[in-house]
Design a protein that fits this description.
Layout (H helix, E strand, L loop, with lengths): L16 H4 L6 H19 L3 E5 L9 E8 L6 E9 L10 H4 L4 E7 H12 L13
Helix pairs in contact: 2-4
Length: 135
């Protein structure tokens, strides 16, 4: 039997990491590396969230780290991009990747949600908080 590559799964345009975690090559390692980037951003800017790249490979999608700041005049929360990263190498991507809005899901996960996700991945049999990820 010839080995063929499995057809690439399409990432839904509004996905978060939690939505695609089952399709990731190495989910614990991927989420851990994303969490490292979020923690670095939070130390630098006081806030951090992540958006998923929705046009790449579902087993290691790129991701965009952002942070929010309150506008001093309007008191509205303004989102700033920190950096985009390759999902396979976790190296920073060129800024031009960030500018293409259709590359990124409109849905984000904050650092607390990503921390909770890695906890569930590392200990899947722990009692959950009452919600299920199964559909």
């Amino acid at each position: 039997m010839a080995t063929k590559r499995v057809p690439q799964k399409v990432i839904a345009a509004d996905s978060t990491i939690a939505d695609v975690v089952g399709a990731l090559d190495k989910p614990v390692e991927y989420v851990r590396r994303v969490l490292e980037k979020l923690e670095r951003c939070k130390r630098a800017h006081g806030d951090a969230q992540v958006r998923l790249g929705v046009r790449g490979r579902s087993e290691c999608p790129n991701y965009l780290i952002e942070y929010g700041r309150e506008n001093a005049k309007t008191h509205e929360r303004v989102i700033h991009q920190d950096a985009a990263y390759s999902g396979s190498t976790h190296r920073e991507l060129a800024p031009r990747h960030i500018e293409e809005a259709r590359n990124w899901s409109p849905e984000e996960m904050n650092i607390t949600a990503v921390s909770a996700l890695i906890g569930r991945l590392r200990n899947p049999n722990a009692p959950s908080s009452g919600f299920s990820d199964e559909d």
